[in-house]
TrEMBL record:
InterPro entries hit by this protein: HATPase_C_sf (IPR036890), HATPase_dom (IPR003594), His_kinase_dom (IPR005467), HisK_dim/P_dom (IPR003661), HisK_dim/P_sf (IPR036097), Sensor_HK_Regulatory (IPR050736), Sig_transdc_His_kin-like_C (IPR004358)
Protein name (record): histidine kinase
Lineage of the species this protein comes from: Bacteria, Pseudomonadati, Pseudomonadota, Alphaproteobacteria, Rhodobacterales
Species for this entry: Pontibaca salina
Transmembrane segments: 56-86, 107-133, 139-156, 168-188, 194-216
Keywords of this entry: Kinase, Membrane, Phosphoprotein, Transferase, Transmembrane, Transmembrane helix, Two-component regulatory system
Length: 471
């Protein structure tokens, strides 16, 4: 009989070791950063499941005290407290360090394994003590508790394969040792229920190990996907930075010659160089118009790069809305006149102030007006007004053009995008204006948005905090 038991024990242990070796073999060699990520994930789960573990321990200790031994329940409870405090302190320390620091990994792993031996020892002490008190029997309570602990480990200790192997090796050894010990001390025949319990234990162990492999594979797959995403993100960031630097360089390099060209064209068209032939004058006007468009494009690109780099500067000061809006409208009326569009303003009281960078806020309002002009029909009117509240003011620009729907929102405020429709656009644009305007308004602590009019057209608005001009 001892020879048969020894052979069965070796086969059981061999099965367990083979399956765990398969799990270990599936883990590719990891760099310190990835290993630190695994350690961090493991300790995060340890902290998160603290109350769940304490609930399970409490139920098991109550059963032990009521049905078997108060002394065993008390001793196990003390060991549980020591083990959980140690695990919590180690987890808290590792989480506080963060995932980015990969030094002292061996020390962290050592602390984690000490904790594994401590709480596995508590479970082994509890189950073996109850099994010895029960004597040779089916041992439902201790074996079920071992099964629960092993399944809990399979589900929540798969981040670090050595931890998983230690737990399953310890639990598996006791899981088989209890029925084998019963068979040994009773010399039970093969037809005994004790043998059936042993075979059932082997089957359950196989199931637990399979679960462990499944959870481990899923976690490794998730780690691989996260690593791929991280590398893709780094490459995307590098490409974006290169693009940003390229656009900034090109924009700056174009600014100087364009300023010279634009100045020369403005001078020639002003008549300062004498009267020009009619055909030649028309060509210069076309060139001047295109130079202005190119200048706007470069300004938008430079603003965009400044915002992305966090280098946009603002000069906030009290701004009187009445004078401010009058000035912006006077600047934009010539452009509106080219399209036979009138700008109408409903005046606001002189004591209405906001805190803003006047140049940047003018850029926002001018961009809204420019878009309204481009999308309106000849002979129409654009209405500018201000709604004043006790704490906020709203500048509104209402047109009677084709109009925008909620579906156009992303196109309006995203970079390099436009509501591109031939019946809406009279002139081209960079697709940056509204994105830049949105960022400027947000830097002012405000909001910019639009809504469709009840009749025809769209109303854009900018909400800003009202300022007491006495402040």
């Amino acid at each position: 009989m001892p020879e048969k038991l020894s052979a069965l024990w070796e086969r059981s242990v061999g099965l367990l070791t083979a399956r765990l070796s398969l799990s270990s073999a599936m883990a590719p060699e990891r760099n310190p950063a990835v290993l630190m990520r695994q350690i961090h994930d493991y300790t995060a789960v340890t902290k998160r499941l603290l109350m769940q573990r304490l609930t399970i321990y409490s139920a098991a200790l109550i059963l032990a005290a009521f049905y078997y031994s108060v002394a065993v329940a008390i001793a196990s409870g003390v060991l549980v407290i020591i083990s959980e405090i140690f695990d919590y302190v180690v987890a808290d320390k590792i989480i506080a360090i963060g995932e980015d620091r990969s030094e002292n990994i061996s020390w962290y792993l050592a602390l984690i394994h000490i904790g594994v031996f401590l709480n596995a020892g508590v479970i082994i002490f509890y189950t073996v003590s109850i099994a010895l008190i029960q004597g040779p029997t089916t041992h439902f309570l201790p074996l079920f508790f071992l099964f629960a602990a092993a399944l809990f480990a399979a589900m929540n200790s798969h981040q670090i394969v050595s931890v998983l192997m230690v737990r399953l090796s310890l639990y598996g050894s006791i899981f088989l040792s209890i029925p084998i010990w019963d068979i040994y001390i009773t010399s039970a025949p093969l037809t005994s229920d004790l043998w059936a319990q042993l075979f059932t234990s082997i089957f359950v162990l196989y199931f637990i190990i399979d679960c462990s492999v499944v959870y481990f594979r899923l976690y490794q797959k998730n780690l691989l996907q996260m690593e791929i995403l991280r590398r893709d993100n780094e490459r995307t960031r590098a490409v974006s930075e290169t693009k940003t630097q390229f656009l900034a360089t090109v924009s700056h390099e174009l600014r100087t010659p364009l300023t010279s060209i634009k100045g020369s064209l403005d001078l020639a068209n002003s008549g300062a160089l004498g009267e020009l032939p009619e055909g030649f004058s028309r060509l210069l006007e076309i060139a001047q118009s295109n130079a202005n468009r190119l200048n706007v494009l470069i300004d938008d690109l430079l603003d965009q790069q400044s915002m992305e780099a966090g280098q946009m500067k603002y000069d906030f000061k009290p701004v009187q809305l009445s004078n401010f809006i009058h000035r912006v409208l006077s600047v934009n009326r010539p452009f509106a006149g080219k399209f036979d569009i009138k700008l109408h303003y409903t005046p606001v009281d002189d004591d209405i102030f906001v805190k803003a960078d006047p140049e940047r806020l003018e850029q926002v309002l001018s961009n809204i007006l420019s878009n309204a002009i481009k999308f309106s029909e000849a002979g129409s009117e654009i209405q500018v007004s201000v709604d004043v509240g006790p704490e906020r003011v709203r500048m509104k620009v209402k047109d009677s053009g084709v109009g925008l729907s909620d579906l156009d929102h992303d196109l309006v405020f995203d970079r390099f995008s436009q509501v591109d429709s031939s019946d809406r656009r009279k002139v081209g644009g960079t697709g940056l204006g509204m994105d830049i305007s949105r960022r400027i308004v947000e830097a002012h602590g405000g909001t910019i948005d639009y809504y469709a009019n009840n009749e025809r057209g769209t109303t854009f608005f900018v909400d800003l905090a009202r300022l007491d001009h006495q402040a």
